[in-house]
């Protein structure tokens, strides 16, 4: 078969007297076989009582497609089915309801109707094709014709066409017969040469077929041979009658229901008008008077419409005022619509319509009252709000303001409201700074911060000290702490990073690394508050490659030295060793980047171990007496971690360790519980560059410099997240301070080249 698709829509009408054009097919009805007598196949499934052959007395119709009224299917239909009348029908393939209820696919000559995604179509019978592409005449062309032999346009003029093979031949072989130059099998199914070279006659409202050389007729959809003369063949008037559509009308109210039926006549207890929604009640039909009974009397899909309370119809929602609990308008005992107001509930409205909101409860929901509360030494004036149970809740503190005060008494000052301020500049003294290597903090009263820098390598390297106030502005001049000699410069010896600085209660103590021909060593100098005096350098640890310090609130300074096989830790106090450095991690072969931070009551030494695929970050706590606990190990066997830094935030109660994955270059951070040193929340990415992260903490916030951007790691929302402040700075040192409006100072250099002197930035009120 050859398939042809032709999408179309058939509109069906309601009522009596509806007629369709003779070319519109509605349904197959009856079939005539010459020599078999009258048609006995008319509506075999219909009610008994025919008044004569071919006439179904139980059927009547006002016209094809008479509307059955509003569709009502229960249960509801599911796609691709649609509710047609009261029946769920798959309209994606149903020939009588193709892509819509009542859309009938008619049967065309030499074809079979189809229904698919594009609508009604037809499939040509074998041996025929739609060569003119006109839908109205179906598959009009026999492929046995000389001009279309075997396929459209294959012309055998001057010869004969073998319709069986589609070839041009000189003569016909039995059982074929020559008809107008074509070899035609007249014993087959070709209606144009059925039993002879002559076609089957065309009869009104029928489709023809040829079976074994005999003409057959079937009524087009929606038509019937009601006078029974289809057997007369060519002298018959065909299927002369358009079928009548009717519906069951059991209650006799003139409106029917259910699936549409079709016949030559309309039986008793039926109606040609559809739309009855209750065929068991003669008072229920379209247009009937609506009664206040909770039912749909006029079949318009509404119940008790026209009956209302304060403009709200029966079944609608009613209330005394906006926001109040609602009731449903219903029919009262006298048949009028009423609103049975509900009992009072806690919602800030007058539910029972007695003039009072939330009467019977302790307070009106949403109402507020002033309150005050003290948390430790902090007192705030806040608000109590009547909650969802109509009881006043706890005293809620006010929102945090940028004023240098802890407005909400949560231990944090100006959290979430400070901003990063522009760089502080204009203090260059002509030096080219190579590295900002360390920074320390005293307090705002004594000047704030101190910074250690290393001058550019194009001159003998010089380790410099300078003071800054709490706003990040430098005070005084640079002071030289140590200088590389000419011979050291020529051999690559002398000053190197890292360095560390802290206020020990009486002076600044600075530890720095110095290369000698025998290896690395850590040296120490002390500096007065204003930098006016610097002690002579003292060697503290031989063979070390890193140093870090952390200052406790008591003034003790925890000092951690690191080298490949061990980590030493000691406590420096007011110019002397309170505990001489001793090993806290030893017996290793690949340690690097030792770091120190203070946690409640003790210090924490942190380092990384990089040895092929065996990698880890290790930490061990030690107290002021130098007593060390067990070594904790994290991320064992993971990626290679380098550039490890650590900081503790006392208010949020977290230790943060930052590191860089050498295999990917991605800087990351993890949070630890300071009591158990267990990881909280896993490892998080804090940037995308390949530079090592710097970290410091204060006032409930943790600050991270991930070159070339600066961000803070916040935990005040119940979980850690990063918030980037600046994506254009190359930050070497991050220094968190306990100041009121300033949260942290950042000291940075250009990412392109060293600059003349350091620049600093700070957080402050906008």
Note the gap between the termini.
Answer: 80 Å
Overall strand count: 55
Figure out the total of helices.
Answer: 1
Largest sheet: 4 strands, mixed
- Uncertain runs with pLDDT below 50, 5 residues or more? 7-69, 750-755
Measured as a percent range, the helix fraction is under 10%
Major β-sheet strand ordering: 10-9-12-11
β content, as a range? 35-45%
| Mean of pLDDT | 80
In terms of structural class, how would the helical and strand content be classed? mainly beta
What radius of gyration results from the CA coordinates?
49 Å
Q: What would you call the shape?
A: elongated
Task: Give short descriptive properties of this protein.
single chain, 1 helix
Description of the molecule:
With 766 residues, the protein is mainly beta. β29 and β30 form a beta hairpin. The radius of gyration is 49 Å and the shape is elongated. 43% of the residues are buried.
What's the arrangement of secondary structure elements?
Blueprint (H helix, E strand, L loop, with lengths): L1 E4 L25 E2 L48 E4 L2 E4 L20 E6 L2 E6 L3 E2 L11 E2 L17 E3 L4 E3 L6 E4 L2 E4 L20 E6 L2 E6 L3 E2 L16 E2 L1 E5 L8 E7 L6 E2 L36 E2 L2 E2 L3 E2 L8 E2 L1 E2 L5 E2 L29 E8 L2 E8 L33 E2 L12 E9 L7 E7 L6 E7 L5 E10 L2 H6 L2 E10 L4 E9 L2 E9 L10 E5 L3 E6 L5 E7 L2 E8 L2 E11 L4 E9 L2 E10 L2 E9 L9 E3 L6 E9 L4 E8 L5 E6 L6 E7 L7 E6 L2 E6 L2 E6 L6 E6 L3 E7 L7 E6 L9 E6 L2
Parallel strand pairs: 9-12
Antiparallel strand pairs: 1-6, 2-14, 3-4, 5-6, 7-8, 9-10, 11-12, 13-14, 15-16, 17-18, 17-19, 20-21, 22-23, 24-25, 26-27, 28-55, 29-30, 30-31, 31-32, 33-34, 34-35, 35-36, 37-38, 38-39, 39-40, 41-42, 42-43, 43-44, 45-46, 46-47, 47-48, 49-50, 50-51, 51-52, 53-54, 54-55
């Amino acid at each position: 078969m050859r398939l042809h698709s032709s999408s179309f829509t058939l509109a069906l009408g309601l009522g009596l007297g509806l007629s369709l054009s003779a070319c519109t097919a509605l349904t197959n009805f009856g079939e005539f076989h010459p020599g078999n007598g009258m048609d006995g196949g008319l509506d075999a499934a219909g009610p008994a009582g025919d008044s004569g052959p071919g006439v179904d007395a139980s059927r009547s119709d006002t016209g094809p497609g008479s509307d059955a009224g509003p569709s009502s299917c229960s249960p509801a239909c599911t796609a691709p089915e649609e509710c047609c009348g009261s029946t769920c029908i798959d309209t994606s393939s149903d020939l009588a309801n193709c892509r819509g209820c009542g859309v009938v696919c008619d049967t065309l000559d030499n074809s079979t109707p189809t229904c698919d995604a594009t609508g009604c179509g037809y499939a040509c019978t074998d041996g025929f094709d739609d060569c003119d592409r006109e839908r109205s005449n179906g598959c009009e062309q026999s492929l046995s014709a000389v001009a279309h032999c075997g396929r459209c346009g294959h012309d055998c003029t001057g010869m004969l066409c073998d319709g069986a093979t589609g070839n041009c031949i000189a003569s016909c072989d039995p059982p074929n017969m020559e008809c107008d130059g074509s070899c035609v099998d007249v014993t087959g199914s070709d209606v144009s040469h059925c039993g002879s070279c002559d076609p089957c006659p065309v009869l009104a409202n029928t489709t023809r077929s040829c079976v074994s050389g005999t003409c057959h007729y079937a009524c087009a959809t929606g038509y019937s041979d009601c006078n029974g003369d289809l057997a007369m063949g060519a002298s018959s008037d065909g299927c002369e009658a358009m079928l009548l559509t009717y519906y069951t009308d059991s209650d006799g109210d003139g409106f029917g229901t259910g699936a549409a039926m079709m016949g030559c006549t309309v039986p008793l207890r039926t109606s040609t008008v559809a739309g009855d929604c209750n065929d068991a009640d003669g008072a229920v039909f379209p247009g009937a008077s609506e009664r206040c009974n909770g039912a749909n009397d006029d079949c318009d899909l509404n119940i008790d419409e026209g009956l209302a309370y304060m403009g709200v119809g029966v079944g609608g929602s009613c209330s005394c005022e906006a926001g109040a609990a609602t009731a449903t308008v219903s029919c009262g005992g006298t048949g009028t619509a009423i609103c049975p107001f509900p009992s009072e509930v806690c919602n800030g409205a007058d539910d029972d319509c007695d003039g009072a909101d939330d009467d019977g409860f302790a307070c009106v929901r949403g109402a507020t009252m002033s309150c005050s509360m003290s948390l430790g030494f902090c007192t705030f004036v806040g608000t109590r709000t009547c909650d969802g149970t109509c009881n006043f809740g706890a005293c809620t503190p006010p929102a945090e303001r940028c004023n240098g005060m802890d407005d909400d008494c949560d231990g944090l000052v100006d959290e979430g409201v400070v901003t990063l301020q522009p760089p502080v500049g204009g203090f260059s003294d002509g030096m080219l700074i190579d590295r900002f290597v360390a920074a320390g903090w005293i307090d705002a009263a004594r000047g704030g911060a101190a910074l250690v820098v290393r001058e550019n390598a194009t001159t003998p390297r010089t380790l410099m000290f300078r003071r800054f106030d709490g706003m990040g502005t430098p005070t005084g001049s640079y002071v030289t702490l140590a200088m590389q000699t000419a011979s050291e410069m020529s051999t690559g010896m002398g000053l190197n990073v890292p360095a560390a600085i802290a206020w020990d209660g009486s002076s600044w103590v600075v530890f720095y690394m110095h290369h000698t021909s025998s290896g690395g060593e850590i040296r120490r100098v002390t500096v007065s508050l204003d930098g006016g005096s610097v002690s002579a350098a003292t060697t503290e640890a031989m063979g070390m490659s890193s140093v870090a310090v952390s200052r406790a609130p008591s003034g003790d300074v925890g000092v951690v030295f690191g080298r490949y096989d061990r980590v030493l830790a000691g406590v420096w106090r007011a110019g002397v060793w309170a505990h001489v450095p001793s090993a806290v991690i030893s017996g290793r072969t690949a340690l690097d980047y030792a770091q120190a931070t203070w946690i409640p009551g003790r210090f924490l030494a942190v380092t990384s171990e990089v040895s092929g695929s065996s990698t880890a970050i290790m930490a061990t706590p030690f107290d002021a007496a130098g007593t060390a606990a067990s070594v904790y190990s994290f991320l064992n066997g993971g990626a290679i971690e380098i550039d490890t830094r650590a900081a503790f935030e006392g208010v949020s109660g977290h230790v943060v360790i930052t590191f860089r994955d050498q295999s990917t270059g991605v800087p990351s951070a993890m949070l630890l519980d300071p009591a158990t040193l267990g990881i909280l929340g896993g490892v998080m990415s804090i940037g995308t560059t390949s530079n090592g992260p710097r970290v410091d903490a204060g006032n409930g916030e943790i600050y991270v410099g991930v070159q070339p951007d600066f961000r803070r790691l916040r935990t005040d929302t119940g979980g850690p997240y990063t918030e980037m402040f600046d994506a254009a700075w190359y930050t070497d040192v991050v220094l968190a301070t306990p100041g009121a409006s300033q949260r942290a100072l950042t000291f940075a250099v250009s990412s392109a080249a060293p600059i003349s002197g350091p620049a600093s930035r700070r957080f402050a009120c906008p």
